[in-house]
Design a protein that fits this description.
31% helix; 134 residues; Aminopeptidase; alpha+beta
Length: 134
């Protein structure tokens, strides 16, 4: 399902990055977490999220990093349930807000998100930095 998520977004992820990510998700000392939706015979979806300090709140904020449901499981409330589970985890952790990004063309996701949160109007900019092998 992890690779299907990146394929959905037209990307692939190196095995080393996947291994490092799953290592962080399994490390209780890391602020990165994951939840999954049980689809019976296989997982139906997953969400990852990260707690971090912020410059405009006293408490931490929660960044919902990845959300994905299998194509045949979409429209069944799984994404909504996963987001609500993140809201619950964030509330238990004392976070003051949950934020996330979505690709502009992902209109189905945006229809769901518009019912669950406030669209902020911010646009993301990114500069990838190439690091030499260490």
């Amino acid at each position: 399902m992890w690779h299907a998520f990146f394929a959905f977004h037209g990307r692939s992820i190196p095995d080393a990055v996947t291994a490092a990510t799953f290592g962080r998700l399994c490390d209780p000392l890391q602020p990165m977490h994951a939840l999954v939706a049980d689809g019976g015979d296989r997982l139906a979806g997953f969400v990852t999220f990260i707690f971090h300090p912020d410059t405009v709140t006293i408490g931490p904020v929660c960044y919902l990093k990845n959300l994905f449901t299998h194509a045949d499981a979409r429209g069944r409330g799984i994404g909504r349930a996963l987001i609500h589970a993140v809201y619950d985890a964030a509330d238990q952790a004392g976070a003051e807000r949950v934020t996330w990004l979505v690709q502009e063309g992902n209109t189905a996701a945006m229809r769901l998100y518009d019912t669950l949160a406030t669209r902020t109007g911010f646009v993301q900019y990114r500069k990838d930095l190439i690091r030499s092998a260490r």
